[in-house]
């Protein structure tokens, strides 16, 4: 009986380690919030920004859960181009998206040098 418990404990340890070491992030991606998904898409812009401002992005999500940009309202054309390039046709995960609904997203652009 002692060996059986030891074997069971070793099996449980192996299974839990294998589960934690799984590199499949699909489940995590599907459960991330809308803003988290978009924030990940906009990381590491490489742009030099002198002053902070907020950009208004209006978009909708098609049946394939891809972003379709309708409007990017910003005084900085370089930022507009960056946002369009990073967001247009990007696939979103999760079941909270409603296709053909129009979304408005304020994006805060912070200074960087």
Description of the molecule:
It is built from 4 helices and 3 strands, in the order αααββαβ. By secondary structure, it is of the alpha+beta class. It has a domain at 33-109. The chain has a 3-stranded antiparallel sheet with strand order 2-1-3, covered by helices on one side. A hairpin with a 5-residue loop joins β1 and β2. It is flat.
| Cα-based radius of gyration, to the nearest Å | 21 Å
Helix proportion range: 25-40%
DSSP strand (E) fraction?
A: 15-25%
Give the helix/strand class.
Answer: alpha+beta
**Biggest sheet overview:** 3 strands, antiparallel
Which of globular, elongated, flat, extended, rod-shaped describes the shape? flat
**Span of the ends, CA to CA:** 66 Å
Question: Helical region count?
Answer: 4
* Strand segment tally: 3
Describe the strand arrangement of the main beta sheet, using strand numbers.
2-1-3
Average pLDDT number: 78
Task: List the uncertain runs.
Answer: none
Elements, N to C (H/E): HHHEEHE
């Amino acid at each position: 009986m002692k060996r059986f418990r030891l074997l069971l404990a070793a099996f449980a340890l192996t299974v839990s380690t294998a589960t934690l070491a799984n590199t499949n992030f699909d489940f995590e991606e599907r459960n991330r919030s809308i803003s988290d998904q978009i924030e990940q898409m906009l990381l590491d812009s490489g742009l030099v920004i002198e002053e902070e401002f907020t950009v208004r992005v209006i978009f909708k999500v098609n049946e394939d859960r891809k972003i379709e940009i309708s409007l990017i309202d910003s005084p900085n054309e370089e930022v507009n181009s960056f946002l369009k390039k990073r967001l247009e046709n990007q696939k979103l995960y999760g079941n909270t998206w409603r296709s053909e609904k129009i979304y408005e997203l304020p994006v805060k652009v912070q200074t960087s040098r």
